[in-house]
Amino acid sequence: MITDERTASFIESMSGLNTPFLEELEQEAHRDGIPIIRPAAQSLLKFILASARPGSILELGTASGFSAIFMATYGGGVHIDTIENYRKRISDAKRNIARSGFEDAITLIEGDAQEVIERLAAEGRSYDMIFIDAAKAQYPNYLPVCKRLLAKGGILVSDNVLFDGDIVLSRFAVRRRDRTIHARMREYLRTLSEDEDLVTTILPVADGMTLSVKADGINDER
To answer: Which end of the chain lies in a sparser environment, N or C, as judged by fewer CB atoms within 10 Å?
Structure first.
């Protein structure tokens, strides 16, 4: 948790409830130990969806389908392509998307995220918003392709970037097994912040989120 527990609890108390179906999905995910976007991240996504009104979203990391269904619920007619490679999660997501009634709004793409986004970019696809919530160590690899897929003026949202606050620590203060992810996420944040094609802010929301806008007038690689 990035902020202190009292402050985080107070902010979450102001977030309000989701739809009954999303509340049910959230309870199921907690019961089954499936990670989903935290309440503070949900509030931020609601704000982005309401203000930016993206017509198309690409999500890297479907898990149980909660975030895709969440964005379809609050996205006002948005279409979402979401990518997942883990077989058990794919079956869960398919079932939940069918239950949600958003089968026409959500397309689940099975496969390795890197391979899928490279294929989508080769096809000339473009998205108004991209939400990265997949393997943390792969974020730096995803970024160049996601930039190609992101429409000018589009928003790139990256979740879980502050590593429960440990991102500020020296690599030697982090558990040995986490050092690769720690280094890769620091690399990702540095690259985002220095990228002249993107305007980026890093927010201490939930487990840390970045918002990046693809600026107008850049050299489009496509």
So the answer is: C
How confident is the model over 114-130, as pLDDT tens digits? 999 999 999 999 999 99
* Residue 84, C-beta contacts closer than 8 angstroms, at least 6 positions apart: 61, 62, 63, 90, 93, 108, 109, 110
Cβ contacts of 20 within 8 Å, gap of 6 or more: none
Tokens standing for 4?
């202190």
Q: Which tokens is 45 given?
A: 């996504």
pLDDT digits (tens, 9 = 90+) for 25-34: 999 999 999 9
> Residue 51: its pLDDT value, please?
97
State the amino acid at position 46 in one-letter form: K
Confidence band of 16 (pLDDT split at 50, 70, 90): confident
Q: Is 152 helix (H, G, I), strand (E, B) or coil?
A: strand
Q: Cβ–Cβ contacts within 10 Å for residue 31, how many?
A: 8
pTM over 0.85: yes
H and E: helices and strands count for the chain: 8, 7
Q: Give which of 64, 58, 11 is closest to 37, Cα–Cα.
A: 64
The β-bridge partners of 198 are: 214
217-to-32, 125, 151, 187, 196 alpha-carbon distances in Å:
46, 19, 12, 26, 11
Q: Tokens 């995910």 — which residue?
A: 29
